[in-house]
Amino acid sequence: MFRIKICGVTRAQDVKMIARAGADAIGFQMSLGPRKITPTQARRLVKLVPPLVTPVGVFVNEPLSRLEKLAQFCGFQAVQLHGEEPEDYCRRIKAPVMKVIRMKNPNVYKAFRGFQVAAYLLDTYNKAIPGGTGKGFPYPWARKAVQELPAPVLVAGGLTSDNVQRAIRLSHAFGVDVSSGVENRPGLKDSRQVSLFIQNAKKALQC
Questions:
Q1: Long-range contacts: 90-93, Cβ < 8 Å, 24+?
Q2: Which of 46, 43, 44 lies closest to 55, judged by CA?
Q3: Catalytic, out of 7, 14, 24, 177
Q4: Average pLDDT of the residues of the chain
Q5: Domains and CATH numbers, the chain
Q6: Active-site residue among 14, 24, 123, 177?
Q7: How many angstroms from the chain centroid is the CA of residue 58?
Q8: Per residue in 9-40, pLDDT tens?
Q9: Which secondary-structure segment (H or E) carries 168?
Q10: Is 90 a catalytic residue?
Q11: Cβ–Cβ contacts within 10 Å for residue 183, how many?
């Protein structure tokens, strides 16, 4: 499973820049929000992702049949689920699944311990927005989840190059995921911030 993912990518130049900077995965938003792209756009961008970087399709409550068709058409090697997808839904997906848990409280992760997924992503809870809020949650909440969930745990929500090392130390997470924290505006990544974020995350993850 990848450890550093840059999400919400919309431009070819950003795909190339992020790969050069050393990210393990690149996320493409297929369902909601200002970073949503079309299947045709995603397919073109995924073709630019080098072999050692994982292209990830990000979905929110998509019908399973549509998700499977999009994953195949676009060439995603993994999918990230940000909605209320149940365990059976996750289990039926052929590609590796990263299930997002929105951290409304420190114990919410317990309901996901039976999910058969490749990884979990702990993100900030917002009633109106399933992800990409730019806000953090108390990262120490992740510690029990890291210990008890049956697959690697990544954290997201409010991460930047300035706080990613602290977030990793407080959460003990396996990896991190960022979108708005490395942007000039939604969908447009800042090369300097991407590089700094990846450098700082790698330092903390190696400790």
A1: 90/115, 90/116, 90/117, 91/115, 91/116, 92/64, 93/64, 93/67, 93/68
A2: 46
A3: 7
A4: 95
A5: 4-205 (3.20.20.70)
A6: 123
A7: 8
A8: 999 999 999 999 999 999 999 998 899 999 99
A9: helix 164-171
A10: no
A11: 19
